[in-house]
Structures are given as structure tokens and as C-alpha cells.
Amino acid sequence: MGNDSLISSLRQERDRFLAFAFCRADLLLELSEKREIVFVSGATQAIFGHAVEELIGMSIDDLVLPHEEPVLKNLLSGMVGGVRPNPMNIDFKNKLGKSQPLSLTGYYVEDLEKHYFLSCKLPTVVSATSPKTKREAGGTVVHDRVSFGKAATEHLKTNPDDKLTFIELENYDEFAKKLDKDTREELSETINSYLRASSTEANSAASFGNGKYGLISRPDLDIDKLTDEISKQVKAADPKGIGLKVEQASIALADSGISGGNAAQALSFMIQQFAHDQSESFSLEDLAHSLPEILARIKKTAERIIRVTEGEDFMIVFQPIVDLKTRAIHHYEVLARINDETGSPQEFIRSAEDLNLIKGFDLAICRKAIKWIQNNPSTQFNRSIAINLSAASIGDADFINQLTPLLTPLKDSPESLLFEITESTRIPDPLIANEAMQTLRKLGHKVCLDDFGVGEASLQYLRQFQVDVLKIDGSYVRDALEDETSAHILKAIADLCRKLKTETVAEMVEDEETTKLLINCNVDFGQGYYFGRPCNDISIFEEPDKPRTVVRRGETTESWS
């Protein structure tokens, strides 16, 4: 074969290789040992704004945003030794300095002058539970606590040798207040980049807020080195150059004794407990030294929730919700009280949500409330009641299928039962949740959106969901007399709801002065100790001659959760 034929054959093989490569990539890069670009092919103008000849000889480090450098460094170093890493999204920059994410994977060839061969693809977009409604797959936005819990349990089912690590920056909230906005955002981006660079996949790192983070990594990751790097970045951002104490603890699942279905339940619970801002039942020290005790505690908690749910080992109490102008009782909210416990079952409910057992408890509450309606009819008094449903339940497709058959006895009097959707946890699937709410409304049951103004998604929910009633969180009501801003917000919410033909309820009403303020703000209904303390005997509210005890509760809330 002559030289021309040989060259032609080689070109043909090269073109065939490129054709196969471009089936899965928008851009191909070859880097030298020093990470300089020696070959590039693909949509360079569209992606970078540079021609091929401009990129040759350029360091790839000059094409990424500064906070992504550790991610790229980790990706390339991970290839040495024959490892082909999972695709990882990295923010590059175009000629104008604007961000351009690319999903990268590749291979390192020792025998070809120690060169790196990268396949680059414009990333797809997937839904996420993050406040941002869209997130790039494996991209620069790390998980929140809900999505990380799901991702961790799924990942570790098939990768039991990987590690789950929790990292906490002590007193981060107070520290962050000392930083200007740009410094704070840059520090957050840098920490997230270090976590993504250290994770098994780009989509296995989480930021829970309050200086708390989660990470899934390979067994050989040096966690101490990672926390040292994070500590250096925090110190560099500190105007005083002191920084913060960074603590971490890891679980190696293969050595933990967690197996089967218990693994998902235990992991999810630990993640949620750690992520909660003020959790007192979980600490990194516990995790580092007492994993068996933690698992035993999780098992005991789950068994108790199941026992209470299946045995209906709880009672229901009633609190009136009144028309503010007429003071007539409009309906009652049903509140659960766990037998042998005092006060609101807040910890019980939160643990049930974290352990994915809340749907069963919600259904048990519904059964007991429906039975009460059947056994306590009245032609003299209005006995409509409202049941709380967790956001986790209403956002689960199977829940409404289990609930609707229970409602059959009320088909002729659906107005006797209302539903309040609480935002104690984030709604996993808003589309499914809205379908469930509309199913209930079509059956004649009114639906109320609870805790409005507390969750970060409140306004978004009001836009996404068609509801009949909106309950304004008590924090606005409590502060309205002393804080003009809270009063303005109350009136704005009430006026907006009137335009939407949605009724409003204000909770935590403690006195006549607050009642008059709410009337002036155009709020329809009120709930609070001023109108009645929760009681298991509903007749105490129906018979005015019975004495009532009005107790001021400060900042506590009588509620389902």
C-alpha cells in the first residue's frame, strides 16, 4: 500500500472514529499531559465562540469558570489508572465570559503521550425538587435535603461500597452574616464545587443550608483532605482570617450492617434528621461513634409510628375556626394527640415524614375523623371538620387512590369534611398533588393550603394549586400589632385571595385587638386560643354556658404538626 493509500485509510479510520464519537458528543477534546488542547473537533464556535485554531495550545483551565477548576481537576485526575468517570457537568465560559455548561467524560491513555481524551455534550435538563424548577442533570446546582435523600438511597442500593458523608460548618449562619453578598455567594459556589468534585457522580452532593452538606463518594476519597480544603476556603473568605470549625462523619455502608429495605429507610431518616436546622436528636459525633445505636433508634421510632398508626393509638381533638365578623363557628380543625403524650405531636409527625410513614398515619386520621362524623350528626350545630394532610401524602400518586374509597359514606354531605394541606415538608410532585386536590374538590370537599407564608414555595403553590381556602401562618398574625410590615403583608394576602375567590383563615389569634386588625385587613376567618382551646369534647364550643379557658400560648402553635 502506497503512502497516499495509507494516509487515506488512516483518515477514513479517523473519520469513522469521529463519527461514532459524535453520536454521543457535541465536542471532542484531546489534552496534553499539561492539560493544553492539542486537538479539538465539533461545535467550537457555538459553544465557546472560538475557532478551532484559537483553541489549539490553550489550557483547558482557561475555559472553565474559576469555581469549577477543582471539579475539572478531580475529573481529570480520576481518569489516571484507566477509570472512565461518569458524566459530570462543568461550567465552561464562552468568549464573552458567559457560563456554558458541558457534560464531560473521557479517558486517559498512558501510551499516547499521557493524553486525556474528553467527550463533551450539552447537558439535558431534568426536573428537581430544588426551589429552582429545573436543574441540569448532574449540574452545578446541588441537591436539597429531599432530592438528596432519594438520590442517596437509590445510588447506594447498587453501590454499597460507596460512602455517605455529612459535613457541617459550625455556627455558619452567624459567620455568613459578616460576609458581603458577593463573598457569601462565591464561598457557597466554591464549597459546592469541591463537593461535586469529590462526589462519585456530579449529581451526588447536597447543600442543606445552615452550613450543612451531604456527599456520596467512593470509598478511597480522603474526606480529611476535602474538609481541609473547605476550611481553607472559609478562612480565606473570613474578613478576620479565622474561619470556622469544619466537622464531618462518614458511613461506609458495606461495614455498617444496613441492608435491604432498612438501608433506604435508615439513610433517608438520617439525612432528613441531619438536614433539619435545629435537630437535637442527631449529631455528627453520634454518627461517627454510635452508628449501631442510631440504627436501633431509627428502628424503634419506625416501629412505634407503625404501632400507633395500625392500632389507631391516638385521639382527635377539635379547635374552632370562626367567622371574624359574626363570631359564628365556621368549622373545626381536627388535631391529633398521641396517646400517652402531651401536647402537639410535632416530633412524631416529622419522624413519620422522614421515614416515609406519614401516608399511613394520614389515612388513619381520615378513618377516625370520618367515623366521628358518622357517629356525631347534629341538626342544631354545624359540625364540619378539617383534616390535615401532609404535603408528602398529597404529592404521592397512590395516596389519593387509597383515600377516595374512605370518603364514600360522605357522598351526600361532602361539606362536612375539609382538607388542609400542610407544608411541613416539600410537596414531592406538584402536578400529582394538584390532581389529588382537584379530585377532592370534585367530590365536594373544600381544600385549604396551610402554613401560607412560611415555606419558600408558598406563592408558587398558590399559583400552581386551585384551592378554596388559604390559611395564613400565625407568625404574621402574632407580629401584626407591633410590626407594620406584617400587617401590610396580611392585608396584601387577603386582598389577593379575594381576587382569586379564595377564603382566608388567620391562625394564632390571641385577643380582641388582633381580631379587629384582621377584620380591617379583610381576613375572613380566625383560629386561636381567643376563640377556643383544642378539646376532645366539641359540645364545649356549642354550648355558650359552658366555661371556656382562654390561655395565651406565646410562640407555640397548636397544630397537627
Automatic annotation (TrEMBL):
<dbReference type="InterPro" id="IPR035965">
    <property type="entry name" value="PAS-like_dom_sf"/>
</dbReference>
<dbReference type="Pfam" id="PF00563">
    <property type="entry name" value="EAL"/>
</dbReference>
<dbReference type="GO" id="GO:0071111">
    <property type="term" value="F:cyclic-guanylate-specific phosphodiesterase activity"/>
</dbReference>
<dbReference type="InterPro" id="IPR050706">
    <property type="entry name" value="Cyclic-di-GMP_PDE-like"/>
</dbReference>
<dbReference type="InterPro" id="IPR035919">
    <property type="entry name" value="EAL_sf"/>
</dbReference>
<feature type="domain" description="EAL">
    <location>
        <begin position="295"/>
        <end position="548"/>
    </location>
</feature>
<dbReference type="InterPro" id="IPR001633">
    <property type="entry name" value="EAL_dom"/>
</dbReference>
<feature type="domain" description="PAS">
    <location>
        <begin position="28"/>
        <end position="83"/>
    </location>
</feature>
<protein>
    <recommendedName>
        <fullName>EAL domain-containing protein</fullName>
    </recommendedName>
</protein>
<dbReference type="InterPro" id="IPR000014">
    <property type="entry name" value="PAS"/>
</dbReference>
